Amino acid sequence: WDETHFGKMGSYYINRTFFFDVHPPLGKMLIGLAGYLSGYDGTFPFQKPGDRYEQHNYVGMRGFCAFLGSCLVPLAYLTVLELSKSLPAALLTAFILIFDTGCITLSQYILLDPILMFFLMGAVLSMVKCNSCADRPFSASWWFWMSLTGVNLAGAMGVKFVGLFVVLLVGLNTMHDLWDLLGNLSLSLVVFGKHLLARVLCLILLPLALYTAMFAVHFTVLNKSGPGDGFFSSAFQSQLIGNNLHNISVPE
């Protein structure tokens, strides 16, 4: 059913047609990019669910979502292996996901869900890996996993606002870490300040910068008049090619 919406929005990006949607833009931009790179020309109308694609090349968009959905299996395996240090537990987790009908169904269509789940699980894995580097703070691997956690947080938030839940999870984990560090009398306040600054940089400023950059790309790409014009001000509409107000000169 939702292919009708998100496939159409992928077409909007390919055609650079402005639209409005309740979700942040990253997932739809990635779907549009996958379609563009795989040869889809953005001309399929997506009028109602179940319409045949005929000669239109939709495989790239579905394939991209299916690929990210399949990545959930190794991500879950690595997360449980890191948490439990148990190979049977990690394998059981992977097999549960491989044979999960809901996961398979969600991953085979042009939807935001597999993209969202990829970033959610990526954020959890990165957080767990970063926790395992706690005995060697400020090492290259520590910085890598903390930065990757921030990137995945931005990705999850950039696909759907449901990504806030993983932001909450990482936030609670970070507060727990900082509380433990504050209670460690062998650490000076200067070192604690460095720990705090590193987390602010990687888990707050980096995700915010990436999230803002997504909207910068969104508004740069969608420069033609479309169905979303009416949600925005006259000043904004005057920047859209093909709009009645395009480049019109009026008193402010």
Outline the structure in words.
The protein is mostly helical. The protein has one domain (2-49, 59-231). It is built from ten helices and no strands. The protein is flat, with a radius of gyration of 22 Å. The N and C termini lie far apart (44 Å). The mean pLDDT is 91.
What labels would you give this structure?
single chain, 252 residues, 10 helices, ArnT-like_N, transmembrane helix, Protein O-mannosyl-transferase 2
| Beta-strand share of residues | under 5%
Instruction: Name the overall outline.
Output: flat
Total domain count: 1
Gap between N and C termini, in Å?
44 Å
Continuous helix count: 10
Helix- and strand-based class?
A: mainly alpha
Tell me the radius of gyration. 22 Å
Please give the share of residues in helix.
55-70%
Roughly what is the average pLDDT, rounded to an integer? 91
**Number of beta-strand segments:** 0
Uncertain segments are: none
Give the biggest beta sheet: none
* Element-level helix/strand string: HHHHHHHHHH
Short description:
The chain is mainly alpha-helical and 252 residues long.
Layout of helices and strands:
Elements lengths: L2 H13 L10 H12 L21 H26 L2 H12 L2 H7 L5 H20 L7 H20 L4 H19 L6 H33 L12 H4 L15
Pathway: Protein modification; protein glycosylation
Family: Belongs to the glycosyltransferase 39 family.
Membrane topology: Multi-pass membrane protein
